[in-house]
Amino acid sequence: MTTAMQTHMDRYQKCIDICNKCMTECEFCLDACMHEPDVDARVECMSLLLDCIGICAMSAKYMAGNSRFASQVCGLCAEICDACADECDKFKDNHCQTCADICRQCAAECRAMATA
Known about the structure:
By secondary structure, this protein is mainly alpha-helical. It has one domain: Substrate Binding Domain Of Dnak, Chain:A, Domain 2. It contains four helices and no strands. The protein has helices at about 5-35, 45-65, 70-90, 95-115. It is elongated and about 45 Å long.
């Protein structure tokens, strides 16, 4: 790996890692929500989980590719992660509470990346 390539990966690695962790946690939460007895009350939550899964994957990909648009994508990722966390917080089961926590961590890291 070239030095320039290693430098950009070092810069992005923490954010890539939390985006991947958030994506995985949202996938788990989505699956769990689909099996909850109040699934009809979770439609907005599940929609935001899908949005969060997609934007976290995109953010990680843009950072890994050193895209000049990585900062903008990370900014949007922070917004979506915050919205997902707020929605997950409405449900008191462990999977939603854990997901909300990870989404907030991801939002903070992506916000820092977007303004760096």
